[in-house]
């Protein structure tokens, strides 16, 4: 691949299971230009439940390939929608970064599983695809997550904010990237992000999200549930460290169940637990960040954002205040990582995943008609 700037599409289907984000960027694998074109394609409820049924499976089931093809078709639709929206031809795109859907993540056992059919995506779009981003890192002894820190750092270089700064992504799981003037990245998963609250809302209201945090804001959190939740040994582990969506699920759901909370009090308690996990992570940072910038769906939860502001004691703002698209950052990241794969640049580092040395990753899939 020749040097220079490449237009790339990045795609993300996160543990919140809401749908597919696709975003267009231009990058040389180091610097990045955001092109402000992004789309979101929601999953149909039926597909969402079939995907959810794959969670926790250490090995592929007989029917998983059907789910993988169906979720990949949603990615195909998202690519086509993004091309149309941006007025871009498929031939102008150098690569697609395809994360797939994480269904099992246990790096201590050397396992991380993302389902999806990258060769199908390449063939149907006619665009080369890079996928399997996490496998090399885990094989080398890393956590395989988070992978966004190198992209967060690339964006933050031109943001003009006082360092050190934290970039916090609140998706199904929350993770933080710590950036200081020494260009040494530190990152880790903090704890449950939206996952437990989303599941609570779906179970009790039929809605898969607490819109704007209104339900949590109307309730009273149970402080004893929060205290017991923070006794989980994960919070004392020195990072880098990572979580599966279902990690802590049994523990926290059991604590909330034992407390016999109503819908609003349960929502407030689960939101408080997510915040508490983030605040506990400050103990593992070299210094307290001057400010926090939040991306992902969790930044739309006003209750969570207000509680974070109160507990962290420094400004907590949406990355949209930096003119980033907080809904598209994770998708953009995988376009960036795809180009880094083409440039043979590392995706993960000792401070972000615990891998022994900077690690390249990903696998390239060429469309059959272009092979």
Descriptive notes:
This protein is an alpha/beta fold and 371 residues long. Helices cover 36% and strands 21% of the residues. It has 13 helices and twelve strands. Strands 1, 2, 3, 4, 5, 6 and 12 form a seven-stranded mixed sheet that branches. Strands 9-8-7-10-11 form a five-stranded mixed sheet, sandwiched between helices. A hairpin with a 4-residue loop joins strand 2 and strand 3.
The biggest sheet amounts to:
7 strands, mixed
Distance between the termini: 15 Å
Beta-strand percent range: 15-25%
Low-pLDDT residue intervals, each spanning 5 or more residues: none
| Class per helix and strand makeup | alpha/beta
* Number of helices, counting only DSSP H or I runs of 4 residues or more: 13
Helix-strand pattern: EEEHHEEHEHHEEEHHHHHEHEHHE
Please give the share of residues in helix: 25-40%
Number of strands: 12
Mean pLDDT: 95
From the alpha carbons, calculate the radius of gyration and give it in angstroms: 19 Å
Summarize the structure.
This protein is α/β, with parallel strands linked by helices. It has helices at residues 45-52, 64-86, 118-125, 135-139, 149-156, 195-205, 214-217, 223-229, 249-258, 263-281, 302-312, 329-342, 350-353, and strands at 6-13, 19-27, 32-42, 95-106, 111-115, 129-131, 165-170, 173-179, 186-192, 291-295, 316-318, 363-365. Helices cover 36% and strands 21% of the residues.
